[in-house]
Amino acid sequence: MKKAILFMIISTFSFSLMNSFVKYLSYYPTFEIVFFRTAGSLLLGTTYILIKGIPILGNSRRLLIFRALAGITAMSLFFMSLQYLPVGTAVSLRYLAPIYAAVFAIFLLNEKLKTIQWFLFLLAFSGVLVLKGFDQELNTTGLLLVLVASVFSGLVYVLIRKIGNSDHPLVIVNYFMFIGTVIGGVLSIKGWIQPKENDWLLLLSLGIFGFFGQVFMTKAFQIAKTNLVAPLKYIEVIFTILIGVTWFHDIYSIWSLMGILMIIAALVANVIIGKQ
User: Fold this and answer.
1) Which of 72, 194, 210, 266 could form a disulfide with 120 if both were Cys (CB 3.0 to 4.6 A apart)?
2) Angle, to 10 degrees, between the axis of helix 140-163 and the axis of helix 115-134?
3) How far apart (Å, rounded) are the C-alpha atoms in residues 53 and 51?
4) How does pLDDT run across 189-226, given as a tens digit for each residue?
5) What is the end-to-end Cα distance of the chain in Å, rounded?
6) How far is the C-alpha of 173 from the C-alpha of 64, rounded, in Å?
7) Are 18 and 64 within 8 A, CB to CB?
């Protein structure tokens, strides 16, 4: 269990750094950032797949493409939201995705929810209302972007479950990264901004941090029970808020922190209850 906790800490810190770099680089066009984020992970993922001899084209190809398109939409909207919101707030709101995933799963996978889970989802959305209703600094455009991003992230979760064990996890991720590289590259051509000297390292590191965040998260889930590991994902919110305060000088009102706490507490409880 100690090793799983260490892996999750490394994973969440990697994702936190990646999101913070995206926030810092937000003066670049969104799809240019998407290109660098996916291209770096694509290079690392493809190399690993070829070395291990994993069939790179996969089996559920149609579902793999749908998952990739939903993932690219979610990523792009989330990156856009970082132009308007404190990075910790954006990450917290993106974690509403499991709620949408649960709703999609009812219709697409015939899954059922416990009554208490609906109450927890209501508590999480109440946290959003507290954020928007009492924090006048919260940008409406950013809020809408990240909420729609979380809907598509929820769809991604369900599509991955639909794919199941028919494809290797790295193949699923690699489809996402390949299509993201193509779409991000094509859509960034017209508005391409040549990176400055110091920005090259940050842009190239996006794919590296994203890849290692994914790898260590996968390792953690492989060696420990899901209901013990999954709540640790939300450590990312703490890391991101701390980075936002120290690096970007983000300011969180008491209402902002209360809303974020309501969202995270409800979602952690849902993970634990859902796995019982």
Assistant:
1) 266
2) 160
3) 6
4) 999 999 988 899 999 999 999 999 888 887 887 677 66
5) 18
6) 9
7) no
